[in-house]
Every structure is written in C-alpha cells, then in structure tokens.
TrEMBL record:
Record field: catalytic activity: ATP + H2O = ADP + phosphate + H(+)
Family annotation (InterPro entries): DNA_helicase_pif1-like_DEAD (IPR010285), P-loop_NTPase (IPR027417), Pif1-like_2B_dom (IPR049163)
Family: Belongs to the helicase family.
Lineage: Eukaryota, Viridiplantae, Streptophyta, Embryophyta, Tracheophyta
Record protein name field: ATP-dependent DNA helicase
Organism, as annotated: Prunus avium
Keywords, sorted A to Z: ATP-binding, DNA damage, DNA recombination, DNA repair, Helicase, Hydrolase, Nucleotide-binding
Residues of the DNA helicase Pif1-like DEAD-box helicase domain: 1-65
UniProt record, GO biological process: DNA recombination; DNA repair; telomere maintenance
Cofactor section: Mg(2+)
GO MF entry, a single one: 5'-3' DNA helicase activity
Keyword Transmembrane: no
EC assignment: 5.6.2.3
Length: 308
C-alpha cells in the first residue's frame, strides 16, 4: 500500500480538538507506522529555478518562518501591492488584466488570469469594478425565489433573496466576460464545477458561452436557467460566478497570472506550503500579490509593530 501526501498539511478533523488531539489521531500514531518506509520528495519542481523562494516555502511548511501575532507570517515585499488609496484597487486589477480593452474576446488571455479573495463581499466588489471595464452593454439577471407550500405568504422575496444558498441572486454580465461554473451541470459535455467559460451572448433565459478549459476547449454551449429545490425553490443560472473567486474555489487549477486580494485581517488565509507553491511558483506562475489594505493599521492597533 502506498500513502501520499504532506503530513504537515493533511490533518484529521476533530471538532474543537486541540493540537495534541489532532496529532494523536494522525496516521503517524497508527500501530503499523513503525513498519512504514518513508520516501521524501526534497526538490520543489515548481520553484526549482528560484532557490530563495523555495527556501521560503520550506520554512513556511516547517513552521520555521518568523511569525507576527497569532501565527501570521510576514509576506515578502516582492509579493505585495501596498494599499495607498482607492486607486490601488485599480492598480491591483491592472496587474492581473493589463490592457483589458484590447483582449475582450481573447480566450487565451482570459483563461490564464484570476483574482482570488477570502470573502464573497470582496468577490462582489471586485466583480462589479471589473465588469464595468468591458465596453459592451451589460445584462443583469436575477434569481426568483419562492417557498414550497407557503400558503400564508410568510416569507417575503426580499428576505428569501438575502439567504445565501450557494447561488447568486444577481448576476451582471457583458459579452466577452469570463465566467466559471460552480456546479456539475453536464460532465459529459465538460460542464463541471470549476469549468471556465467566456460569455459570447446573453438572452432572457440562456447564456451563450465558450468553454475555455478541459478537452472541450472552444465548444459553444448554452447555459439555461434551472430550478433548485431545498425547501426553497430557487430559479438561477446554472451556478455561475464571474471571474473573481474565493480562495477555496480557486485552489483547483493553475493560472499564469493570479493575485490575491485581502482587505480585512480577521479573514485569515491558511495557505499550506503546497498552496503557496501552486499559486506563487515564480518559474511557472506569476507572483501572488496581497493588497494589504487595513492590515497594517489593524496590526498596529493590536500592538504588533513588527509588521512592515
């Protein structure tokens, strides 16, 4: 039997468990572990041309990188776009999508780029800013919510639309905008969770799109409205999201130009050393850049002056 993985990253789940309880439940404490032969992979293939960066990843993975406050590491300055004013967000977006107006219908340009962020609120804000950069006319589509067997009309649509059930209530798109599926809608045709597409046309109940990833690259598909039932009937557009993603959504694939937007310190980002390597490897990927708006001020208010 072969086991694969990084024991610094893959830990058992114990609700409200302590660090020692997690360690005791791990495979290294199993009765057969003394008979296991361990083979270690020692070379970082993604960052093999940048030894300084590789050593940084190893220090993060081994827990040897100096921490600030509650186990927060200082991100190297070369990976950071500092926050100066509101225009910093525009600079941040330009780092990912330079000369966007010249590449509106360029599928190869769009498929290589992404912005990731910890919260849905930041996703909405960045998507709104970026969709306004496209020159075509925008179309806004809304979901329609209703409660099954709600004979007395106890639940108002405004309240229902405020409940997050994994689908967007409001979706604003333009022709040429990149989009991503969040559900498996038709795996046989390549329409799976994580499939990236380019919007080619917008209709009342359909979205005309071109697949950008997988074996069906270049295929034109129609994404219809669909009904989802979980006590709450929700008519939505096939689990779509625009091209800004939360970090968990975006850990599935590599891109050449990836940036991470962080606004609030309370939203902790737990990158394992493997995730750092996947998103930040300088020989294969562009730098992962943090917008540290409000982070420095929050640290100083808490007395953590070491941050720079």
């Amino acid at each position: 039997m072969i086991f694969g993985g990084d024991f610094r990253q893959v830990l058992p789940v114990i609700p409200k468990g302590t660090k020692s309880e997690l360690f005791q439940a791990s495979v290294v404490k199993a009765s057969f572990w003394s008979q296991v032969k361990i083979l270690k992979l020692r070379q970082n293939m993604r960052s093999r041309n940048d030894q300084q960066f590789s050593q940084f990843l190893l220090r993060v993975g081994d827990g040897e990188e100096p921490v600030v406050g509650d186990d927060m590491i200082r991100v190297p300055k070369c990976l950071v776009i500092p926050w100066e004013n509101e225009l910093s967000i525009n600079e941040f977006i330009y780092q990912v999508f330079p000369n966007l107006e010249d590449h509106i219908n360029d599928a190869s340009y769009m498929v290589e780029r992404a912005v990731i962020t910890p919260t849905n609120e930041d996703v909405d804000m960045l998507n709104e800013k970026m969709i306004n950069m496209f020159p075509s006319e925008e179309e806004t589509m809304y979901s329609f919510d209703s409660v099954e067997d709600d004979m007395r009309n106890l639940y108002q649509p405004k309240f229902l639309n405020s409940i997050c059930i994994g689908a967007l209530h409001k979706l604003t798109l333009k022709r040429g905008a990149p989009i991503m599926l969040l559900r498996n809608t038709d795996p046989k045709l390549g329409l799976c969770n994580g499939t990236r597409l380019l919007c080619r046309g917008l209709y009342q109940n359909l979205i005309d799109a071109e697949i950008l990833t997988g074996q069906y690259v270049g295929t034109r598909v129609f994404l219809p409205r669909k009904v989802e039932c979980h006590g709450l009937t929700n008519r939505v557009h096939s689990g779509l999201v625009q091209r800004v993603n939360t970090i968990n959504d975006d850990n599935k694939f590599y891109k050449h130009h990836t940036r991470c937007y962080v606004e609030k310190l309370e939203h902790k980002i737990k990158f394992s050393s493997n995730n750092w390597s996947r998103h930040v490897a300088k020989d294969k990927l562009s730098k992962l850049k943090f917008d540290n708006k409000k982070v420095k001020d929050q640290l100083e208010r808490n007395g953590w002056r070491q941050w720079s």
